[in-house]
Amino acid sequence: MSLAFQEIMETIRMVEMENLDIRTVTMGISLKDCAHPDVQLFQENIYQKITTKAADLKAVADKIQREIGIPIINRRISITPIASVGVKFSSSDYVEIAKTLDRAAKTLGIDFIGGFSALVHKGMTNDERNLILSLPEALSSTERVCASISVATTKAGINMDAIALVGETIIKASEASKDQNSLACAKLVVFCNAPEDNPFMAGAFHGEGEPDVVINVGVSGPGVVLHALKKYPDADLTEVANVIKKTAFKITRAGELVGRLAADRLNAPFGIVDLSLAPTNATGDSVAEILEEIGVEVCGVPGTTAALALMNDAVKKGGSMATSHAGGFSGAFIPVSEDNGMIAAVEKGALTLSKLEAMTCVCSVGLDMIAVPGDTAPTTISGIIADESAIGMINKKTTAVRIIPVAGKKAGEMVEFGGLLGRAPIMEVSQYSSEKIIRRGGRIPAPIQALTN
Amino acid sequence: MNHTKGNRVVVSVIGQDQKGIIAKVTAILAKNDVNILDISQTIMQDFFTMVMVVDIKDFQGDTEALSAQFKPLEDEMGLKIRLQHEDIFNFMHRI
Question: What ipTM was reported for this prediction?
């Protein structure tokens, strides 16, 4: 087949000028066969399995990147939720396990390892409680370990006891890492309807029903979409949706190729492409700027939720044609700290926490990378998580909360996390209390699945 | 699927227009036993832009090794020369 000059130039432009990248190649590894009641043997088992299965992950990703000329930003590993493999471990055992995972990540030269997780949406075992209790120390004494807690699903309802515990845990993690701007909280996601095959951190884990080893790919490219849209300043919204769809197709195809190559060379089945628009702090690589290009003056003003709904759906439509298996989060990420447009919108006062919450109803994630004052009450954090879980539960979608109470900082100040995590303005939270609803505890019943109105 | 198993690689050259770019790039290809299958060249927004499809089956080494051969020329003439396997282009734009 002959290659068209135009197509070649388009690809080169997408990479060189519009920040097209493959965000991550993530190897999912089951640790079920590593279970052992002796914590030291357990650590040896998981270290051995991870470093064996993923021995070539970095080299293979590096080589593919050079061959096809598209950067692959992260190489990651997701593992079976560690509390599901744990047998009778104490919180201090879990801290040691986190350190072992960190060591494995460093040995392999990979960026993050996700799955220091517990799924407690219906109830909590002692082990799972111990893991949650270990999080402040585990996340502040490791660099590359990411954690997630599933606290709600549409089928099980919302575990408010778990949410109360997680709210306290987030505040403790904030304090434990106060010398790093409470960075530990940026490595912890709280989920409703957690996807089991998502390659994006901090929420990645290797779920039930997954094979022993699997390769998942996360693609991105807000810059490419933004650039494509700029060519049609007068198009109507149907045409705008179409442009996004076509662009998402091309971005996802690149991910599909990388996934197939990586799976082939790493001797693992190819799982999914997570077809997402995930922003970075690079100029123009912003979801907020796409929404503004669609037609709102600043992200957050009326019309923003509609623009986001249009964009999110178009990304899924274009992407799902381009890959055999779409999965994970698929859609748009709207993290504040990782998106220059979002940061600017918050600074202008156009984008508030409540608008962000509304926006999460129509996009793939939830309240992501949001910095709030360090003296926020744990019950307020729990209240925010409960609200976001309710949105996911009722709407049968994934929602998540990655919130960072920054120790010692007040609303309006700026906090730097560095790297892909970016920087965030501290947002205001309600000064009134959520204590009573959190103190009640129990489980919010799962919603009725009929009578959907 | 037959991905990145073929020998066809796309060489793209972008930079400020100046004399001798094509001569010097093709000389390096010839020296390394690389056959040019297709070549197109244009000036886009004052930038010299050339795209070649080449066959590297007789070259001893991979795309990376070939890429390294162009490094001195890139520095000398201020060019950006990149090599990419043809599959990424086929895969991205065609069903």
Answer: 0.84
